[in-house]
Design brief:
6 copies of one chain form a homohexamer.
Chain A lengths: L3 E2 L8 H10 L1 H7 L11 E2 L6 E10 L5 H7 L6 E7 L10 H9 L4 E8 L2 H7 L3 E6 L11 E2 L3 E3 L2 E3 L4 E5 L2 E5 L4 H23 L4 H4 L3 H6 L3 E2 L1
Parallel strand pairs in A: 3-4, 4-5, 5-6
Antiparallel strand pairs in A: 2-6, 3-7, 3-10, 8-9, 10-11
Helix pairs in contact in A: 1-6, 2-6
Chain lengths: 224, 224, 224, 224, 224, 224
């Protein structure tokens, strides 16, 4: 089941990908019915980055980053590399040399349920990573994995070509076929929130804004 | 036992609260006999914030943030919201809209044994949070909890109106009735440390400053 | 087996120590055959610091920092304090007063498989720490431990006088007797990487640069 | 705040304690409104034990079991020892000698948010323990703690004299003043479940037994 | 995306399911190319059980077990219930009443990335469970989830009708369409192991049996 | 630094090894000054086993069990295999075939800071294992490690030929050169405990038996 590389992967149009990136993880997660969120242990190596990209997926053996080199050739402008090891591992699959290569291919960042190293350099290069660990442990190149096959990364199913959104809140995966519709709902949500934000800032309470008092009383909430 | 909201909570005078905030977590924790400290997994979403406030407590079902809206109405200038879920949970109970509302009520920050989201926005707004996780996972509004009842948050008992101090070292709870006395001891401690700091900076050893050599020798410490 | 303090410890020459520090954790770890790395839970209290120093080791009882004071006297210019508790503990063994003293002794930083506090002050003082936790919990001075004996810290064996390298990637220990040779290999590695970095930045693929295509094909990698 | 031993503690009548023990953790937890449950990391050292007892509480420094000896004198027939360290610790505070003493005092078991050792002997003696860890690490007797003061153990507030129920499902704390009422509700719950169990065993569905179909349809559940 | 119940799910023939169960997790995992294994935190509530069954999947909100009742109606002889919460949760979704009902429907066991309770009763009833936690915490019935949709459980993708194998080694998922082929490979593997077991028991070394000495020497293994 | 196999390792006499095994982990740990204990996450795969043996150590790459086959040849009657991966890993390095071989070589058990599988079979064969995880994940045979070199396993330094004691309390390592002396102290400790056990069982308190009352009073313990 390993040793497969899928060359051609359909991607969402870049303007949709970029739109999802602008909305960010929390909004996109809500806009698609609260699905696709990776586990909270996936943390950015530095704060402030917000990206979206089309997933090039890597399924790699524990402690073996050979398939990252294979994936590199398949990266296109606007892609994000997404790696899940075939068994839990926090070795440092990726560092500054691979980031140099990834940037040269137009890659926007890395999402990895394992470790990463050279994080100071990666930050200086502006190459964001969301990972399970920062760990200098070196990897080998001995065993095949697969590229652009469906993977489960940090609890979320990722198909190649899915849109991956990542920021300080974590990582969320949008199925490619739903990307446009999710973007529409994300923008509608943002527009709706603008008015709420204005009213809440003015001191109005959510209890009134969302008309909650009656429901709470009906359920028996008691003020003492 | 849930579904209770206590409207009126006695608070410590704001100058005492502010004094404790200025002393910070490590000093306050020492000044009250090394009690009241929350578990070390409670981390700030951004560095550098140091706050103190009177606790408005929330006991909420897992994945349900309805009671946060109820608590919002009870917040006064100088308060800190403290939330513990009724079973372990790391969903994102709180984001930028709630922070907008909390700031409008004079709230100084959030302490939550669960998750928070929109952390980039919260940092931009200057609304500090100490949480167990950063997690975009949305919550619902379906079940009652309680507001301003005693809770256990991250291993520490918090009564409504207690003073909560939080900074980069973590979170510490000071019982309201002891706040003034603890502040006195914290200030005495700070004064005493000033002289020690000067002498240590000049190269004097703690072994001499604290007169430890004799005790260590008596216990049998051997230099080889 | 405790209660021992070794006064005189051989150290590597400072120019070798400094050279290893300049290379950083990932490179040094590779240069010595991927050994000596501490567990990934050892994280810096603030980003951007990179140090190397000769280890002054402390074996301390849980929740008891007395031996840190004993160790302080033995610190020399260019040393790093390395502490492992005798059973798992995350109490705050070290804060701003001890850091003041350590800086006065020429100490470059602390590596501790336990907790640390006053982290805001430590950052302001420029005293870097790699720890298992940030935790304000106070410690006592009641029981003997040992100083400058071999310890296991975060999974790595540390002998007094070993060179400890630490940066944003973690902490790596170089046996003193191998320090010079490791430095040589680290520098050779850096030189070799320079050319690779240039070629990768120009768009060349690792698949070609490292001549991997044939081996991958031989192992049966299939493109579809 | 430490160094306090409260000699006289009010306890619930033994027949109420025993009744709660017969009901078990899950039922008692439900009967008191889903409160009082300790964290799930509190596991029995052997399967099959089910106990209830009045809490004699111990607040102990990390790695120091001196207060267990102090508590021993205060144990009465039907008590359970409950220990929380003042900072996280998994050292082995308790082994077969202490169990010998506890059994001689009529103690029914130990609940400890730390470690325990000699577990094979404890099982042979029939002395059940619920702990955070099994760990042989020895402890010292150097620093005071307190006995029979309120403690937070594994996330639950325990007052001396509260009823502690423990079985394979974990540990639940019942406030002494509510013990009788909770027992009544527990028994009512058991009676009600008997009939449900019979009907479910006969193949009736919960959907029908609890009349859920209408509510699910109203909320929009779709069968496809 | 929630609120969906799929009534009709294709299942593998029971003799294939039973064959996979007889082979057990380790063999089946190998036979399908080392895929489909759930995370190691999924542990049986009692030792010695070994089952296989067709998956009826449940996606449930955190702390809400309503959908388990919905799933109950869809269980057929030889099924296994598989539940993943929509965000991490260890509440006790399942206890002895639900097990009574499940047994009445012919269900062989439960696999749940959350908590379970009444484990003593479940063992007495012979109803095996693999779970992330044993936890008495009660759940509610307030929000819709889905039944028989694809889920990710403990890191493994599970489609309704897939074959789930579980024993003391953990849990492994076999895609329905591959079940027969995997069974064939599992049996071939068992046959091949029989001979190896005999030779190893007789003292022959794996080094010779698998002809490893030459390869090891070629790679440079040095005996000293 | 890898690729080394040390053939000849000095071992402690078997009667000393067996004596330490009879004393068990908690007693041996105390007898050697509370050192050598592995982390508490090292748990037996079944209860009741108590072994001691001379360590044959294995340093293995993550997910690669080739060196276990190499080690097998070096096992002698009374040995225990001790394996630490070179980076954190919980894959199943060892199963029933390897156990068959190990038993044929006189090996008494396995201590592994990683995973193990076929645990039902291992229990049936009476081959005890202490591991970090039970996990069916298969391993490969591609990269060299080392056999009979010093390793750090679960926080403890293990030299080849050291005596490893393991039971339900965990795992403890005794340096070979100290084995005889430690055994002497262990037996003295057991003799001393016999009398204490008798007196405690008769109801005498540790407070009196160990003459603690005066010291506690001197430190300020207050009974209220």
């Amino acid at each position: 089941m390993s040793g497969i590389v899928v060359r051609n992967v359909e991607r969402a149009p870049l303007e949709i990908v970029d739109g999802l990136g602008a909305s960010g993880v929390a909004t996109v997660h809500e806009a698609q019915g609260r699905t696709g969120l990776m586990r909270s242990f996936m943390r950015p190596i530095y704060g402030g980055a917000r990206i979206a990209g089309s997933a090039v997926t890597v399924s790699a053996p524990p402690g073996d980053n050979w398939m990252v080199h294979v994936a590199m050739e398949l990266l296109k402008e606007g892609d994000v590399l997404v790696l899940a090891p075939t068994s839990p591992c926090e070795d440092g699959y990726f560092g500054d040399l691979l980031a140099t290569s990834a940037i040269a291919r137009g890659c926007r960042g890395l999402v990895i349920e394992a470790g990463v190293r050279d994080v100071r350099d990666l930050q200086a290069m502006g190459f964001p990573v969301w990972s399970k660990a920062v760990f200098a442990q070196g990897t080998i190149k001995a065993t095949l994995g697969s590229v652009n096959v469906p993977i489960v990364c940090a609890g979320a199913l990722v198909n190649p070509g899915d849109v991956v959104v990542a920021d300080d809140d974590g990582v969320c995966v949008v199925p490619r076929a739903e990307a446009e519709e999710v973007l529409g709902r994300a923008r509608a949500r943002e527009a709706a929130e603008e008015e709420k934000r204005r009213r809440l800032a003015a001191g109005e309470l959510g209890l009134d804004l969302y008309d909650m008092r009656g429901k709470l009383e009906a359920l028996g909430l008691k003020y003492v």
